[in-house]
Write a structure and sequence with these properties.
The chain is α+β, with helices and mostly antiparallel strands. The protein has three domains: about 60 residues, Nucleic acid-binding proteins (OB fold (Dihydrolipoamide Acetyltransferase, E2P)); about 70 residues, DNA polymerase, domain 1 (Orthogonal Bundle); about 45 residues, Helicase, Ruva Protein, domain 3 (Orthogonal Bundle), CATH 1.10.8. Helices cover about 40% and strands about 20% of the residues. The chain has nine helices and five strands, in the order E-E-E-H-E-E-H-H-H-H-H-H-H-H. Strands 3-2-1-4-5 form a five-stranded antiparallel β-sheet. The relative contact order is 0.15.
């Protein structure tokens, strides 16, 4: 099992990033909460990882903190929640916000996240309430400044649109969320963050 990787980020196309670890490039899927704390320069980063082995693929997920990874693993135990939905939850709200939402039994807040219907939201509230106590007290996220996105062919709007769709939002909904924010001069990651906040 791969539990932790330390290296330099070669490219980032949310929710995917490529991490160079001593000459080996690891393709990693990460929530936006991790992208927000990645350094903009060539500084090495440490990611706590979770390896999911499926019949059709091996998928490596990366997180800035052990607490985020623990929450991701707890979410995977909920019926109807897979890796894509768990990433969408961690991208749409912080672990603290998720905890408050669960404690408040706020079904509406959960159903605003992509891939979560009313039944799944209710199941999350019932099943996660007891598990959240064991997830508190994880280490703080990476002590790094938020950075820009590695230059890509597409515009920041197009990259943000693709990232939102990869997180589970329908194309029309992703476009509506992005148009609802003032994206003038914003990079891809800032656009995604603003769109996710506006979509709540």
């Amino acid at each position: 099992m791969i539990g932790l990787l330390r290296g330099r980020v070669l490219s980032r196309r949310p929710p995917f990033l490529l991490l160079d670890v001593n000459g080996v490039g690891y393709e990693i899927e990460a929530p936006m909460s991790t992208f927000y704390v990645l350094p903009g320069d060539d500084s090495p980063v440490t990611l706590h990882t979770h390896l999911a082995i499926r019949d059709d693929a091996h998928v490596l997920y990366g997180f800035a903190s052990e607490n985020d990874r623990a929450l991701f693993r707890a979410l995977l135990k909920v019926s109807g929640v897979g890796g894509k939905v768990a990433l969408a939850i961690l991208s749409g709200m912080s672990a603290d916000e998720f905890s408050l939402t669960i404690q408040a039994g706020d079904v509406a807040a959960l159903t605003r996240l992509p891939g979560i219907g009313k039944k799944t939201a209710e199941r999350l509230i019932v099943e996660m309430r007891d598990r959240l106590d064991g997830l508190a007290g994880g280490p703080a996220p990476l002590p790094a400044a938020r950075g820009g996105v590695v230059a890509a062919q597409a515009s920041p709007f197009d990259d943000a649109l693709s990232a939102l769709q990869a997180l589970g939002y329908k194309p029309a909904e992703a476009q509506r969320m992005l148009r609802a924010v003032d994206g003038e001069g914003l990079g891809t990651e800032d656009l995604i963050k603003a769109a996710l906040q506006a979509g709540r």
